[in-house]
Design goal:
By secondary structure, the protein is of the alpha+beta class. The protein is built from 9 helices and 14 strands. The strands form 2 sheets. It has a 9-stranded antiparallel sheet. A 5-stranded antiparallel sheet has the order 10-9-12-7-14. Its cofactor is Fe(2+). It is found in: Nucleus.
Amino acid sequence: MAAATLTREGGEDAFRRLFRFYRQRDASDLRGVVDFSAPGGQVFRSQLSISSVSDQDAYRAGLQPVSQWKAYGLSGYPGFIFIANPFLPGCQRHWVKQCLKLYPEKPNVCNLHLHMAPEKTTDLWGQSKEQLRRKGSSKREPRSLLEKLRWVTLGYHYNWDTKKYSANHHTPFPSDLAFLSEQVAAACGFRGFQAQAGILNYYHFDSSLGIHVDESELDHSRPLLSFSFGQSSIFLLGGLKREEAPTAMLMHSGDIMVMSGFSRLLYHAVPRVLPNPEGTALPSCLHQALPSDLPAGSVLEHSSDEDWQVCAKYLQSSRINMTIRQVLAEGQKFPEESGTNGKGQAPSEDSYHENSKAKRHKPNRVS
């Protein structure tokens, strides 16, 4: 059945029907999927706040001047902004390395910390790099710890039992990622945005992310920022109810999505990870190394060729997504709670990310 027919049908859980449709669809047939690299139809150019971010601050975050960004909106989705890869050449590499080498380490929290002894989850990068570097194409090879990584939380850590954040489960938010997020938010009209919580998702070609709404933050007036690196994906953006059929769109390496206003609390999901459309192991935007002369005050750091070889091997079959949120409004505090330590228990690896063997798609609470 064609996607257009499924979209017109609506009715009970129209979102789930389209999720399954794109989950099973031939990756070479992307008719009906919005591609912002060839905008048209319901896509229109979106205006940014160019004066809110200096060129110097953009450079410090590894971004092009905001005046050069290509930002788009989508008819029917006010507050949704899609920014087609605004990163300077080579600068995506910093964020990929951080997501694989630094951010998964304690005091941040990842899925492996919940299922393995503490001594076995120390230095995931060091334990995985040689295995990844030597990895061939056989699916029978054992997976490294980094390949078993499914999610990492930063800043305020989500309580999976109560589905809330709390004051007593918090670790320092990475300063480089906070700076990047602040520049993107300001360019989209949200000056003063504070990056207080981050959820990193690690996808492979058999991964998907279930239908959900990000509503646990106490302040919904601030946007949700989403950054993608590596292989491509299909993203579904729906309505305020699951009965509303979603719009399918492509996300490629370096692309940024901003969900604000009306679009902040819409249902969304990732049914499918796709090979990058260029047909190469990695998209061309990841081929170039960081420039040797980074600007003064840059939050980016150079990495060794050896480190990038590990990252590149990982990304040949994977996609990394960072979603950044402001949890509290200025001056807002968490309500008093009793009987909880704020940490809770996270979902199992299988219920969080769904793989090709999963028979039932469970909704999750993060992007």
